[in-house]
Automatic annotation (TrEMBL):
A GO MF term: oxidoreductase activity
Organism, scientific name: Rhizorhabdus dicambivorans
Claim: Flavoprotein is one of the keywords in the record: yes
Protein name: Putative NAD(P)H nitroreductase
Organism superkingdom: Bacteria
Sites where the protein binds FMN: 15-17, 44, 138-140
EC numbers for this chain: 1.-.-.-
Cofactor, how bound (note): Binds 1 FMN per subunit.
Keywords (A to Z) from UniProt: Flavoprotein, FMN, NAD, NADP, Oxidoreductase
Keyword NAD listed: yes
Cofactor: FMN
């Protein structure tokens, strides 16, 4: 991100998830910028445990098929309409990025810290997409954790899907209120006598 410190802080303060998307999504150059920003996240041990699987165009249909397979596996009697609804989730934005944590097992940096680094990469991805004028939403849901989807993405047992990011032209923004600082901040400034 470039800009004055105030512009960067304003971007952070305005950040919100998109609810609905339309074309266009990011161009190839813009997507490269978004992913390049994502990998600048803090990474204890410089392990780079993040992997990005990008679904665009008809490639989103492959993700949709995996999402439908998850519903079918969990609910063998699922009707065609329910399976189609699951498939359509992958088509809600022009660009979909699955963010995967591929931890280095046995390293002195615990897996939980590696997962936190990947989550930080997800936050950078969102902010970079917003900075370029795109809406973005971070989703997980049952599909992110399901064996059928994990196998379809070629994940190892120790890998995890940290998020599925939908990126496109924002049509509607989340109306959910933000937390107030009073609800989430505790100050401990003075030493006890």
């Amino acid at each position: 991100m470039s800009g004055t410190p105030n512009e960067v802080v304003d971007l952070l303060l305005r950040r919100a998830s998109a609810l609905k998307f339309a074309e266009p999504g990011p161009s190839g150059t813009q997507l490269e910028q978004i992913l390049s920003a994502a990998v600048t996240a803090a990474d204890h041990g410089r392990l780079r445990p993040w992997r990005f699987i990008v679904f665009e165009g008809a490639g989103r249909e492959r993700l949709g098929d995996l999402m439908a397979a998850q519903v079918q596996a969990d609910k063998p009697g699922a009707e065609a309409a329910e399976l189609e609804k699951a498939r359509e989730k992958a088509l809600r934005a022009p660009t979909v990025v699955a963010l995967v944590c591929k931890p280095v097992i046995g390293h002195k940096v615990p897996v939980v810290e590696q997962q936190a680094a990947v989550a930080a990469a997800g936050a950078h991805l969102m902010l970079a997409a917003n900075a370029l004028g795109f809406g973005v939403a971070w989703k997980t849901g049952a599909a992110a954790y399901h064996p059928a989807v994990r196998a379809g993405l070629g994940l190892a047992d120790e890998d995890s899907v940290v998020g599925i990011f939908y990126i496109g032209t924002e049509q509607q923004r989340s109306p959910l209120p933000r937390a107030t600082l009073e609800d989430v901040v505790e100050y401990q400034r003075d030493r006890a006598a």
